[in-house]
Amino acid sequence: MTTGIAILGATGSIGASTLDVIERHPGRFRCVAVSARHDVEGMLAICQRHRPALAAMADPQAAATLAARLRDLQLPTEVATGAAGLLAVAEHEAADQVMAAIVGAAGLLPTLAAARRGKRVLLANKESLVMAGQLLMDAVAESGADLLPIDSEHNAIYQCLPGDYRCGAALPGVTEILLTASGGPFLETPLSRLPGMSPDDACAHPNWEMGRKISVDSATMMNKGLEVIEAAWLFNLPPDKIRVIIHPQSVVHSMVRMDDGSVLAQMGQPDMRTPIVYGMAWPERMDGGVAPLDLVTAGPLDFRSPDLERFPCLRLAQDALSAGGTAPLVLNAANEVAVQAFLDGRVGFTAIAEVIANTLDQTAVMPCPGDVDDIVALDQDIRRVAGELIGRCEGRRQH
Ligand code: NAD
Ligand code: MG
């Protein structure tokens, strides 16, 4: 029997790596359903190659175009659209596993739906845990779904934990976890030059090839901040047990410090197919097409503490985790709005942290709502606040 995989965000960077792994093991895995926002050409190529039963495009126009093109090619893939289309992919009856690889808050509802259905959730979409950690972890616990972290750091930690460990459970014997961070493209850039950095500069990551949003997050180190919050939920740890260490070579993907003095690490190439195939094959191991790591040629491995003056977003995220309640949701929404404005050329690089800090200042921390509709509504409210702050930054820039 092959394992059916649904991919949310199939046209993205994680989506492509997942499809590559599926293709390497045709007898074992099969792509049954896919979703994307509006990339018709990308989706069409996936449908031609993988023949999924269902393809959902969030954008209705794109869905209509895709449906017409599929008809012309006489391909049998059914097309769905909008929020309902994404849910249909997440809940597809032929899907045993769901790769949650939509970028940003748009991933929350389908990821939650997959967890509620008891699918194995391969979690790349860290934003959904940051926004609604309690809700998602509760859904996983209630349905008995397997939750496998795909983010390379969390996957590394998972690999270092006992074989019977399940995400969300307490971690006896663990002193702290050490999340490694490359430091991104601006690790050595003089601070005075940061305000002038362009979107292309920010997306030129030294080690990893990723979508543009997460690439900017890596440049600000908000990515590591979101990962600190993600780790708190996945491994049920308080903020003071999650430490960030800069490791520019991205060979050690994270570490776990045990009470007896041991530090366990997972190492490998910076290639997302390792955590992806790990999650898909778990508890077995399979080849994901990743080149072997040669420590002799990898060169020296460096480790140092992050500079929070250079990376204010990391501190904002750590403070949001400590504040709890809605603070991480506010942080995430403001970050998404600010990163998009930066990618659109509306604000400068250093305005990202300013907008997030100001949004957090303007919003009182409340207990996080227990209902997902309230969480989505709050996310929208915060986006409006952050949007106004962006408008003011633009105004300042033009004068
Ligand atoms: P990407 O931009 O390359 O792809 C994003 C995918 O989401 C695309 O398929 C796009 O069509 C879809 N999408 C975007 N907006 C959508 C919307 N509003 N509705 C429906 N679909 C939408 O991003 P990526 O780099 O593949 O990252 C995906 C997720 O995985 C992110 O949450 C990211 O943080 C996480 N992640 C990525 C990497 C990596 O190496 N790329 C590593 C760790 C974690
Ligand atoms: Mg990561």
Automatic annotation (TrEMBL):
Binding-site residues, NADPH: T11, G12, S13, I14, N125, E127, G211
Catalytic activity: 2-C-methyl-D-erythritol 4-phosphate + NADP(+) = 1-deoxy-D-xylulose 5-phosphate + NADPH + H(+)
SUPFAM superfamilies tied to this protein: 1-deoxy-D-xylulose-5-phosphate reductoisomerase, C-terminal domain (SSF69055), Glyceraldehyde-3-phosphate dehydrogenase-like, C-terminal domain (SSF55347), NAD(P)-binding Rossmann-fold domains (SSF51735)
Classification via InterPro entries: DXP_reductoisomerase, DXP_reductoisomerase_C, DXP_reductoisomerase_N, DXPR_C, DXPR_C_sf, NAD(P)-bd_dom_sf
Annotated ranges, domain DXP reductoisomerase C-terminal: 267-384
Residues given in the record as 1-deoxy-D-xylulose 5-phosphate binding sites: K126, S152, E153, S182, H205, S218, N223, K224, E227
GO MF term list: 1-deoxy-D-xylulose-5-phosphate reductoisomerase activity; isomerase activity; manganese ion binding; NADPH binding
GO biological process: isopentenyl diphosphate biosynthetic process, methylerythritol 4-phosphate pathway involved in terpenoid biosynthetic process
Domain 1-deoxy-D-xylulose 5-phosphate reductoisomerase C-terminal: 147-235
EC number(s) given by UniProt: 1.1.1.267
UniProt cofactor(s): Mg(2+); Mn(2+)
Pathway(s): Isoprenoid biosynthesis; isopentenyl diphosphate biosynthesis via DXP pathway; isopentenyl diphosphate from 1-deoxy-D-xylulose 5-phosphate: step 1/6
Residues engaged in binding Mn(2+): D151, E153, E227
Gene3D superfamilies on file: 1.10.1740.10, NAD(P)-binding Rossmann-like Domain
Superkingdom: Bacteria
Keyword vocabulary terms for this entry: Isomerase, Isoprene biosynthesis, Magnesium, Manganese, Metal-binding, NADP, Oxidoreductase
Enzyme kind, highest EC tier: oxidoreductase
1-deoxy-D-xylulose 5-phosphate reductoisomerase N-terminal domain boundaries: 5-133
Family: Belongs to the DXR family.
Entries under HAMAP family matching the protein: DXP_reductoisom
Job description of the protein: Catalyzes the NADPH-dependent rearrangement and reduction of 1-deoxy-D-xylulose-5-phosphate (DXP) to 2-C-methyl-D-erythritol 4-phosphate (MEP).
Protein name, UniProt field: 1-deoxy-D-xylulose 5-phosphate reductoisomerase
